[in-house]
Specification:
The complex is a heterodimer of chains A (264) and B (300). Chain A is an alpha/beta fold. Chain A has nine helices and ten strands. Chain A has a domain of 166 residues: Rossmann fold (3-Layer(aba) Sandwich). Chain A has a six-stranded mixed sheet, sandwiched between helices. A four-stranded antiparallel sheet of chain A has the order 2-1-4-5, covered by helices on one side. In chain A, helix 3 packs parallel to helix 5 and helix 5 runs parallel beside helix 6. The two termini of chain A are 31 Å apart. Chain B is 73% helix and 2% strand. Chain B has a two-stranded antiparallel sheet. Chain B is globular and about 55 Å long. The chains are: A alpha/beta (264), B mainly alpha (300). The interface between A and B is medium-sized, with 37 and 31 residues.
């Protein structure tokens, strides 16, 4: 479903702040794969996701989704294939607009927008039904502005919006990190449920090593712009958090000085 | 205030409300402080005056003024989106360029329209319209444009445009080309502003190369006054609010004039109104209820 080949990305080229963020990353995801991505700060995890989403052009390499070579596509065009949820709950929704307006924007993701009334009665009913599944009581608040929702509610809404029009690939960039632990668990449960229901191909960054191993079917670890570990099936099932830690130290040849790497 | 002064003020307020709808579209909906307005207002007046002066149909002339404004707005939009010039500077560049363009169109700094056929002289010939023709035509125009603006902002494209002003990153990741949205919004906005310019020129029966100076601040003042007085809970309400704000702004100006201030002091008064409105925290909270909850700022 996703094929990333030998991508390179250097930020601030030619300046004192030059930083090689991606140093030849290759990754293949089959349809329905749910891959968790771990690694210390600056390892290139977000850069990898952002380069797939098209926030910037990569220097070298090739990105394909569902057979389409999208390396040269602008971000808005990639939206027809990729949807994403950000860490910051404020980024995924338009605060001054209503829940239903936000949802209809997501429902038209990747389609050309026309000069017709945005929301039909049928669609409103559909939104209500989808919101009911979240179990947050949002189904009665369709015309409320999103700014009235809590961070967790907004993140759940963003997640729902990301799946309304089934994406070929969904990118989750620490989408539970800014939430309180209880809400984070809820949003993560929701993530697993919708991913399983829709057989979504998913790439999820997390700083929680427990989640990294318990969620999804594959785990990759990044360090200094490379993938240094790729765990699947048996190898993954037998992995413990402590051993994952040790492997990280061994593979990267350095000690972890990173308080965000949590032993959950 | 005599009835005559009052109805004159009302006429002006409704005419300028057309311009204020345009300012609302960029300033509030797109969150883009567009200074093109000063130039495009005069552009509309210049196009209409020149055509009317050379004997063209005034309705056609007003329509072409609208088109001229569309182009001016698109130009600003292209400067900003394609050449990556800041919003403020893009507007100033177009505004400055338009000063020369407007003089070219008019051929001289001032065109009188006395005793020429205008849209208002046409309306005045209808039954019962001799006295209130200007008022009625301006009212109908602003209500129709306001209604169309409301309908537009509820369409798929309109929603994408509003989201572009609210959270650009989000709507781009939903597959909308935000550059196109900005160009579209700026075009429509300046189209309305130029259209208002053509109305004002025909009503005051002259066009002048400097008549657009300070128009953006008058527009901002009207938007802010309307939002504070009427509120912004829904799109429909906000549109009515800014129309109302435009009228109130003109009433305030008329009252200030009656107090004995010279017409040349008006720009100062307008600036002071806007400064007070923007700086007093209490009012500010009502005007910018969204600030702080905008994309990328703060969590929860």
């Amino acid at each position: 479903m996703l094929s990333v080949r030998e991508i390179l990305k250097t930020f601030n080229k030619g300046t004192i702040n030059e930083k090689r963020a991606l140093n030849g990353v290759s990754l293949q995801l089959a349809a329905g794969d749910f891959v968790t991505v771990i690694g210390s700060n600056g390892a290139g995890k977000s850069t990898l996701l952002n380069s797939i989403a098209g926030d910037f052009w990569i220097d070298q390499g090739e990105i394909r989704i569902a057979g389409c070579e999208i390396t040269g596509w602008p971000q808005y065009k990639r939206a027809s294939l990729v949807s994403r949820v950000f860490q910051d709950p404020m980024r995924g929704t338009a605060a001054s607009m209503t829940i239903e307006e936000n949802m209809v924007m997501a429902l038209r993701r990747g389609q050309s927008r026309r000069l017709r009334r945005a929301i039909s009665v049928k669609e409103r009913e559909y939104f209500r039904g989808e919101l009911r599944k979240l179990g947050l009581g949002l189904e009665d608040r369709l015309t409320n502005k999103v700014s009235l929702l809590s961070g967790g509610q907004r993140q759940a809404l963003t997640l729902l919006m990301a799946t309304l029009r089934e994406p070929k690939l969904i990118l989750l960039d620490e989408h539970t990190a800014a939430l309180d632990p209880k809400t984070a668990e809820k949003v993560l449960d929701l993530t697993c449920r919708v991913a399983a229901e829709n057989q979504l191909t998913t790439l999820m960054i997390t700083h929680n090593l427990d989640h990294a191993l318990s969620v999804g079917n594959r785990t990759i670890m990044m360090h200094e712009g490379r993938i240094i570990l790729d765990l699947r099936e048996g190898e993954r099932a037998n992995m413990t958090i402590n051993r994952l830690f040790e492997m990280f130290e061994k593979a990267s040849g350095s000690h972890i000085h990173n308080d965000r790497m949590i032993l959950a | 205030m005599s009835w005559q002064v009052f109805s004159g003020t009302l006429e002006q307020g409704l005419m300028y409300a057309i311009m204020v709808l345009g300012v609302y579209l960029t300033f509030r909906v797109l969150d883009y402080a567009d200074l093109t307005v000063d130039g495009s207002f005069t552009l509309g007046a210049a196009i209409a005056a020149r055509l009317i002066f050379s004997g063209q149909n005034p309705w056609l002339a007003s329509g072409l003024a609208f088109l001229g404004g569309l182009l001016a707005g698109a130009f600003t939009g292209v400067l900003h989106t394609k050449f990556k010039i800041t919003p403020l500077l893009s507007g100033i560049l177009t505004m400055t360029a338009l000063y020369s363009v407007n003089l070219r169109i008019m051929g001289r700094p001032n065109i009188p329209l006395l005793r020429l056929r205008t849209i208002f002289s046409d309306v005045a010939q209808l039954p019962f319209m001799e006295r209130y023709g200007v008022l009625v035509l301006s009212l109908i125009t602003v209500l129709i444009l306001g209604h169309f603006l409301y309908l537009f902002l509820e369409t798929e494209i309109g929603i994408a445009l509003r989201a572009t002003g609210d959270n650009e990153l989000m709507i781009r990741s939903q597959g909308v080309n935000t550059d196109q949205m900005k160009i579209l919004g700026l075009s429509l906005s300046n189209g309305m502003v130029a259209f208002a310019g053509s109305y004002v020129a025909q009503n005051q029966q002259f066009a002048d190369a400097s008549m657009g100076i300070g128009m953006i601040i008058a527009g901002l003042a009207s938007v802010i006054i309307g939002e504070v007085l009427i509120g912004t809970t829904t799109i429909r309400r906000t549109i009515l609010a800014v129309i109302f704000g435009a009228v109130v702004y003109r009433v305030i100006i008329a009252l200030v004039l009656q107090l004995g201030l010279a017409p040349t002091d008006l720009k100062l008064v307008t600036s002071i109104i806007v400064i007070i409105a923007l700086s007093s925290p209490g009012i500010k909270k009502r005007i910018f209820p969204r600030s702080g909850s905008r994309a990328g700022k703060g969590v929860n």
